[in-house]
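assembly run, all chains below
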Amino acid sequence: MHYAISEIPVIRRFLKSRWPQWGITVLTLAVFVVVIVTGLFGTPAGNHNFGIIYVWLVWWALLKLVLVPFLGRFWCSICPIPAPGDWLQRRSILTPRPGGKLYTLAGRVLRKSAAGAVHPWPRFLRNIWAQNFGFLAVALFSALILTSPLATALTLLAFILTSLGVSLLFERRAFCRYLCPIGGFVGVYGQVAPVAVRVKDPAVCLAHTEKPCYVGSDAGYGCPYFNLPQKLNTNMLCSMCGECLRTCDRNNVAFYIRPPGVDLLDTRDRRLDEAFNGLMMLAAAFVYSVVLIGADGRLKVIARAVGTPEWFAYAAGLLLFSVALVPGLFWLCVRLGQWMAGRDPAAAAGRGSRHADLFAGYATALVPLGLAIWIAFTLSFTLANVSYAWPALSDPFGWGWDLFGTAAMSWTPYLMGIIAYLQIPVLLAGLVAAVALAFRAARQHGQRPAAALPVSAFCVSAVVALLTLYMA
Amino acid sequence: MQRRDRFALVIILAVLLGLPALLLGYQAWRQQPAVAGVRIIHIVARAPEQGGFSPDRLTLQVGERVRLRLSSPDVVHGLTIPGLGVNVDEIYPGRVVEVDVTPEKPGRYAFACTRWCGADHWRMRGVIEVVDLSPRPPATGNLPPQPPATGNLTPRPPSLAGKGELSSPPLVGEGPGERSLTREPPLYQQLGRDLDAMRPPASATPAGKPSAAAGAALAAKLPPELSDPLRRRAIAPADAFQRLRADPANAGLSDDDVWNLVAWAWFKDVSGPALARAAELYARDCAACHGPEGKGDGPIGANLPGMAKMDPTMPKGPADFTDAAAMLAAGDVLLQGKLLRGGMGTGMPEFGSLYTDEEQWAMIAYLRTFLFGK
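ok done. output:
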């Protein structure tokens, strides 16, 4: 079922070359620069500012509708935010330093040896909790950020400066791996993607003690995401940047095409931080659906009025809903499932899973469901508004330019009549996958199938609630 | 550093430094007028609560070719400069609208937003001062001395402080300044009418909606004070009814017929195009507060003090033009005064600087259509 596309010589050469990835990164960096400049100096009217349109409509739609579902975390490998930090750490843009050596500011200031120059990321932060809460922090201000070019520019500047600062102090892509608010859910949902970078034969890796894929070599750098490729079993932390493909001198790493969602088939040993990400993203999709595209415009006004008492109430509501209500409801469903299934023989024999494992295992079901809900949500506003991209391309600042002759193109919703026909199959597919995963989780955690019913009902309720919301 | 790395570095520096410089440089280049001798002036139209027009005060020269580049960062605005014949219906946020102006006469020209952009929309105004720097021929001695340029003009639009109240004299003197400064005062001032005096309600009101056409069909003779439109403006319709009712010549007419005569007296000299223009102006300037049907129920006017500002027993909010007892007790001259001066604390702005004389009287006639049928 897995096909190693990188075994085709032309494709392997393409994947190992640094030029394509560098070229796309420079392109995204150029767009990023235009976003910052238009955000800082252009019109505050979001629908005529390049920054708002090309970040929150074009990029977001590409991310949610194409990149994540089909290419997993590939965006991270061409993201402009960590690129300057990478170049500074590597002190090179294309050609790797001998041994794939990295440099950090900490190493220089503390005059540590080359081996000690890299600064390890604090152990207690080696998870995606910071990413989860970072996402929530951004979500609190999202109505403002999504509509104000200046707020968007300042947010992205904050991201790139933080990334740069982190890369000067800590090794590799610590910002992307542990802090980026986007990276968390991109990794979680990227598990659905039908592509993966994996080792061909784990036995070869076991015998290969030098591990250039992790420490780097003359051919490239150690994995920027701190992965040991032989242990990779999901896309969660792999951006498919190709470094391991370049550094593996045993030719034991390949780029695979595979059935979608394979990463989710094993629901055991799942992490709580990733489970929480799935729940938080589900909650955020609902909040956004109500606040940003809902029928009551007052909510959007309140969500945008940062600092007012009404906004504090909204923020408290969002946090309560995302951190407590939805996860709490899901936890109740998991517990109810345990109760409904009764004490089963495996659990009685001590082979049953702990509550946390069960919770995280069942949360795997939320990955396809959440992705489907986010795709439906993204479809709802993308097709309606993406025509703003044409005038924004010709007049990025809203200053009356007409660079490509498209400035006067008026707002035209595209394919509005078929949005529902796109959303419903996607939601149903996500729901079917979620329910199937819930039953799989029950089986893999030594429970009777009935234990999956409450979680399945949770998933069905989420879809019904969302459809009701959109139809209203 | 290898050659390819140097190449990559150059590309990256070009993106990081060159691209912003290119974009901002292009804009700086665009600021230069494409045609020699044309001056480009940017006017940013913000919601009045955020500052209104910026700048709100311009100085141009007679004969100067000017291109106004208008933009809005927030909501849809409009722009009218009645004295210079400029009307821009829509300035969409994020779009730039250009309009060329070449003032021909010196003076002070009011400009204003024409779209209801917020509760304080009517305060969104500015002034263009047109000066003549060309050498003038020496005075012959027969011409009267020119009044000072400032005259009785308000130097800036009314302050936003004290929402709903004019904190400074109203802006007057639209159009060519010299003409406006020398023309005669408005009729309500000539007649010495006190706009703020409390008026008793109309002594008589019609049972239905009087019809001017039905009044014309009666072929009755109107007294001079009603047949002459200039004299009629000083009379309230209710008083006109009483005079016609008391006239023995109309003894055979019913009250409804007499009201039809009153309606005819009010509309016989009003042209269709004038009423159509007034309807446009009403929709643009009045409907938001007074409501599209003149019932005083426009959404923007809900929180205005209205006449309660002067008498707490009076109803709050904008005037109800369908209130026969109030409207038929007011002559056209009184309505003209309100239109020109504003409501002095009631929340009613002044429109004198934006309307021509013809538009003022047409507007007053239009207000009568809420009670009288053509």
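The interface with chain A takes residues 1-2, 4-5, 8-9, 11-12, 15-16, 19-20, 23-24, 26-27, 30, 69, 71-74, 92-96, 98 of chain B (CB under 8 Å).

The first helix of chain B runs from residue 3 to 31.

not gonna interpret more than that til we talk
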